[in-house]
Amino acid sequence: MFVKLALTVLPLLSSVFAIDGCTRNATVVSGDTCDSISRKYGVSTYQLALVNDATIDENCDNLQPGQVVCLGIEEHDCTKVYTVVADDTCDYIQQTYGISNETLWSNNPQIDAACDNIYIGEVLCVDTDSYTYPQYNETLYNALAYTYLPYCDE
Fold first, then answer.
1. Which of 44, 62, 71, 145 is the most exposed place for a label (fewest CB within 10 A)?
2. Does Signal appear among the keywords (predicted)?
3. In the predicted model, is pLDDT for residue 3 greater than 60?
4. How many angstroms separate the CA atoms of 47 and 57, rounded?
5. SS3 state of residue 81
6. Is the pLDDT of residue 57 over 80?
7. How far is residue 69's CA from residue 66's CA, in Å, rounded to a whole number?
């Protein structure tokens, strides 16, 4: 009984605890994932995870219909995004959007130096302006990245 009540109240609590400086938000619907929300609302997967660090768990599997998530915060809200597809590289993304190496990594600090941890469906910030983000939950990002990275035994 208590568990059922807690699961019913959880989405309501998330909308009560508003994130300071949230510039836009979205309401989770059935079937949403972090990547689908990112694609639907034009927010990088990294930014979505970062600004909702207190409410979205490491596997992004605790989203509840009716839950309100923040999409961006003041001065840290990249809205120019790109969804990674098969065979994408950081060089390709940089050339396509005319952004420097430094800007790509500044706006997407979860990308490793070799750029081999971007995954299909991940939404990246490709703005030519750099955003300075606060510390991020590296465990959350890695859980998402390694869940979606294709396995290769070659």
1. 62
2. yes
3. no
4. 14
5. strand
6. yes
7. 9
User: Measured between alpha carbons, how far is 75 from 71 in angstroms, rounded to an integer?
Assistant: 12
Share of the chain above pLDDT 90, in %: 53
* pTM exceeding 0.90: no
Contact status, residue 45 vs residue 34, Cβ threshold 8 Å: yes
pLDDT-based confidence at residue 19 (cuts at 50, 70, 90): low
How far apart CA 45 and CA 14 sit, in angstroms, is 19
Angle between helix 34-41 and 138-148 (nearest 10): 90
Tell me whether residue 81 is exposed, middle or buried, using C-beta atoms within 10 angstroms of its C-beta: 0 to 12, 13 to 18, 19 or more.
buried
CA distance 81 to 44: 6
pLDDT at residue 50, as a whole number: 86
Residue 128 has pLDDT above 80, yes or no: yes
d(CA 139, CA 120): 19
What is the CB neighbour count within 10 angstroms for residue 51? Answer: 27
- DSSP per-residue letters across 95-115: HHHT--HHHHHHH-TTS-TT-
| 140 three-state secondary structure | helix
